[in-house]
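Action item from last week, closing it out:
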Amino acid sequence: MNAWVRITFTLIEGAAFNEQHRLAFPYIDTPTLTVGLSDQALQIIITDQGAAYLPLPTVAEKIACGVLHRVVDAPEMVVPLYLMYAQDHANPETLHLALQGLRDLALAMGKVGPPDAC
């Protein structure tokens, strides 16, 4: 295929990504293929070759192993991530623990390099 694969994110993230993408690549009208999940896009570009903007945590191991590579001088796209939960959660202690774990993970992901194992 050797194509451009586009991931469609949710409405909020999609709008931010689409605007960044439009400004960075005004000459690209339509991707060859559009998918809804980064894992789908990953499998397509590994199997059929191509290019896609994918979240770094999704591809870090493949980059470290040499299966994928970053495109030199490609603009970096920054997309917000939102988490929603019920205010009156049935188990607030578990919710608090989960939220703290996610915060710790997000912090660690910003400081940790790619995985060692291939």
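Closing note: The longest strand covers residues 3-7.
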